[in-house]
Q: What sequence folds into this?
């Protein structure tokens, strides 16, 4: 490509963030060149600076950050020198941004159409009625259901996947030259993710828009990007065309990224003896809304049962029934053969101790005002009656188990830990009760892949060491493949299919299991196109959005 | 000419206040270490001015018998004597030393206001957090009761209760504390409900923790910031309602010195162009402003500095 095609050129970009009184480097001298109509994938684990670079491409630095060096040249405009007024004219019109959480980015008080029309009308690109016609047109192009009517709904009346697509359409409203996608599908489950990916790709191709696609999921970026740039702690590791990068990664770090999905624990022997936890014909409802319909499955000692399904399938509700937070309307939960009282308040301390839980969001699962010592120490003190020196010893032992240095971490607050470390503390808190059974509710879905893999390996090791039974709730089939022994597939509150993992991953499948399995992105850059083609042929339902 | 002189004195007062606040901040920062040191060093001038004023009031309240030249209730001369080297601020309607009564008033008014606010917070936050944690019928019952109490204008309600129960200092404290605790209840319940839905509370419940542990160890540390901020504001309101009640004759009873009733007793002097009766009012205003400066700073810290 000739140099005249260059749309965005970043040279030696340095960005610093404020920490206490000091400025610490976040990005140390990254170069980036983007041609018109090209899609560049930015990959890295959390803290790699990928979102920061994405925002810098708009000439913007977050609060507490500053662009301290380098040049950002967008189509002949120096964004670092540009005035606020100049930037305001560019943003939304020539450079658009699609954020990770569409739900948090839309204003809940206005209808979608109003928010769509805002940019084109204010930038003077279109009149209000033109913008509305254009919106319907774009909504149709990205295959939103009811394109004429959907614009008149409020954000909360639209599902997450649809909202993310509406956001993409909104970013397109002024036909910008550049769109920055910041993890647009990370919060979505696999079946929904495909819809959004297909919509984004279609629309970017149709309008020849250049894009920066930020993600930590390699398989996703392989579908979307022409070129991939890999970042690690603010430095560029390597950059190459997508196919070349996938075929022959040069750098060790890149290869380690590739290898993440390779973790698979050895097959466990078939279950012996009685199950630890059994659900017997459990039905449950929130008020009058039924959420679980006649669910039965067993969890054996030393085995991991993965409960899979998209959001709203009832997998977390099943966990709430087991823990006693939601008494079932029918059926019962057995623990080692004995029925548990349906309400947790009626359970004995011993029954509570034996079933522990690890949460998805470690941020909300750990009390931000308590030091690690108290968070981990409390269950040990309460259930096992440890105190004083014995308690401290036990806390140190637990920290060792989760591979955190006791002296360094014991008196920290949760806010002084990284996401992965917080999740490890969540695990230690569950272990401190010395339970027989642990429910892991999406424990890795908020973490990037390398950190997530570390957590999975840790859980696996602990299971062997303490004879634990796990119930692993997830929507990520890669995780299931890595850690599960048995799989329970749920949809709309029912168990669609269940059995040992090898059986579940081999055909024939139930149609819904098939849909889930085929929706997991693969590293092959042609995967998405091929899959969409196949689905069009088979006329399978496209996703299962509510 | 007259306005110019007034403007000049306002400018001087402002300058002195700023210089004093700056000096106080430097001194406070020099005397402290660690977290507190950093907080004080970065405090805005308004906040350090507020802290300085509160500290001065505190010292006066504690050392009242040492500072005041005359006892609180002693008649030292004739009525309404002008300012002199003996009676610095003159005498009041009964011939008692005005300055001494101002000093003792600090102790009474501020002390009672503080005790009242403390009690209001004890009642309000315990019940509010209890309602948020237990929920259900208890929450409904308490919240509706509070709604009913809040529907009656607080000053009128206080007047009503004080006429029923009589006007002793104890009933005064109790009545104002109960009325003000309804406001604290609303805040504690609202903030508490935001915390109760967190996963760590669920985890604690599933661990089998009792209500007391849940509220004191898990919830309370997460609601202290807004409660402390509210404490400062509430203190001002309590202060003002005590003064208002005293002015109306149902608050602190004579001969106990108190700023509110001092304004009332000496109000006639104002018609003669004497500013003395306004001094207690000024003392109230100054403390109110000072407390609000500090509260604003605390609110800013609670909201802005989430690490």
A:
């Amino acid at each position: 490509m000739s140099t005249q095609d260059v749309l965005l050129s970043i040279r030696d970009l340095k960005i610093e963030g404020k920490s206490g009184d000091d400025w610490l480097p976040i990005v140390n001298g990254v170069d980036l060149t983007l041609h018109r109509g090209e899609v560049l994938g930015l990959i890295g684990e959390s803290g790699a600076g990928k979102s920061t670079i994405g925002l810098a491409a708009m000439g913007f630095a977050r609060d507490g950050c500053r662009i301290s060096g380098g040049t950002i040249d967008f189509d002949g405009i120096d964004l670092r020198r540009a005035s606020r007024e100049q930037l305001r004219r560019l943003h939304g019109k020539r450079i658009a941004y699609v954020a990770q959480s569409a739900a948090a980015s839309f204003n809940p008080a206005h209808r979608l159409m109003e928010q769509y029309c805002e940019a084109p009308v204010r930038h003077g690109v279109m009149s209000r009625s033109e913008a509305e016609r254009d919106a319907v047109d774009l909504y149709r192009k990205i295959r939103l259901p009811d394109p004429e009517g959907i614009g008149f709904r409020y954000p909360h009346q639209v599902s997450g996947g649809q909202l993310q697509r509406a956001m993409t359409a909104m970013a397109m409203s002024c036909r910008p030259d550049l769109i920055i996608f910041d993890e647009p599908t990370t919060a979505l489950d696999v079946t929904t993710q495909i819809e959004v990916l297909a919509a984004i790709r279609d629309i970017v191709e149709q309008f020849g828009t250049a894009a920066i696609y930020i993600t930590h999921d390699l398989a996703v970026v392989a579908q979307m990007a022409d070129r991939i740039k890999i970042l690690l702690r603010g430095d560029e590791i390597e950059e190459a065309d997508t196919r070349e990068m996938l075929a022959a990664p040069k750098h060790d770090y890149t290869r380690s990224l590739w290898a993440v999905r390779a973790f698979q624990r050895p097959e466990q022997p078939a279950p012996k003896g009685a199950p630890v936890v059994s659900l017997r014909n459990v039905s449950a409802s929130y008020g009058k809304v039924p959420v679980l319909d006649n669910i039965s499955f067993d969890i054996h000692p030393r085995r991991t049962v993965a409960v899979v399904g998209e959001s709203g399938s009832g997998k977390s509700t099943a966990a709430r029934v087991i823990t006693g937070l939601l008494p079932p309307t029918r059926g019962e939960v057995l623990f080692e053969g004995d029925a548990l009282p349906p309400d947790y308040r009626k359970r004995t301390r011993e029954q509570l101790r034996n079933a522990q839980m690890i949460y998805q969001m470690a941020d909300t699962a750990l009390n931000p005002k308590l030091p690690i010592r108290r968070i981990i120490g409390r269950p040990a003190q309460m259930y096992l009656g440890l105190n004083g020196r014995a308690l401290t010893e036990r806390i140190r032992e637990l920290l060792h188990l989760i591979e955190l240095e006791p002296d360094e971490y014991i008196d920290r607050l949760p806010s002084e830990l990284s996401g992965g470390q917080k999740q490890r503390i969540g695990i230690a808190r569950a272990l401190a009760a010395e339970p027989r059974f642990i429910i892991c509710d999406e424990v890795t879905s908020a973490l990037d892949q390398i950190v997530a893999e570390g957590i999975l390996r840790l859980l696996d090791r602990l299971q062997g060491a303490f004879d634990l039974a796990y119930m692993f709730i997830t929507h990520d089939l890669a995780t299931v493949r890595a850690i599960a022994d048995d799989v329970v597939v749920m949809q709309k509150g029912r168990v669609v299919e269940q059995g040992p993992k090898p059986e579940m991953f081999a055909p024939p499948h139930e149609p819904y299991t098939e849909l889930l399995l085929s929706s997991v992105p693969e590293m092959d850059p042609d995967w998405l196109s091929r899959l969409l083609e196949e689905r069009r042929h088979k006329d399978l339902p496209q996703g299962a959005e509510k | 000419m007259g306005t110019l002189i007034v403007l000049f004195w306002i400018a001087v007062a402002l300058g002195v206040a700023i210089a004093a606040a700056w000096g106080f901040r430097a001194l406070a920062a020099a005397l402290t270490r660690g977290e507190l040191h950093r907080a004080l060093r970065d405090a805005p001038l308004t906040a350090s001015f507020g802290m300085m004023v509160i500290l001065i009031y505190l010292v006066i309240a504690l050392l009242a018998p040492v500072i005041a030249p005359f006892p609180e209730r002693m008649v030292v001369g004739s009525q309404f004597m002008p300012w002199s080297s003996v009676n610095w601020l003159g005498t009041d309607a009964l011939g008692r030393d005005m300055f001494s009564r101002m000093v003792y008033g600090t102790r009474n008014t501020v002390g009672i206001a503080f005790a009242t606010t403390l009690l209001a917070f004890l009642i309000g936050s315990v019940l509010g957090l209890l309602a948020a944690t237990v929920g259900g019928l208890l929450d409904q019952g308490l919240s509706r009761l509070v709604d009913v109490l809040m529907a009656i204008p607080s000053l009128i309600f206080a007047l009503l209760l004080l006429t029923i129960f009589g006007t002793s200092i104890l009933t005064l404290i109790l009545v104002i504390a109960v009325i003000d605790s309804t406001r604290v209840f609303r805040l504690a319940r609202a903030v508490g409900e935001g915390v109760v839905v967190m996963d760590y509370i669920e985890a604690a419940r599933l661990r089998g923790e009792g209500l007391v542990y849940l509220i004191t160890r898990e919830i309370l540390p997460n609601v202290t910031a807004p409660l402390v901020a509210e404490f400062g504001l509430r203190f001002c309101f309590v202060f003002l309602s005590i003064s208002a009640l005293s002015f109306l004759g149902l608050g602190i009873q004579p001969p106990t010195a108190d700023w509110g009733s001092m304004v009332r007793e000496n109000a006639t002097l104002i018609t003669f162009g004497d500013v003395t009766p306004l001094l207690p009012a000024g003392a109230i205003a100054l403390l109110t402003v000072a407390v609000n400066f500090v509260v604003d700073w605390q609110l800013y810290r609670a909201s802005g500095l989430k690490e």
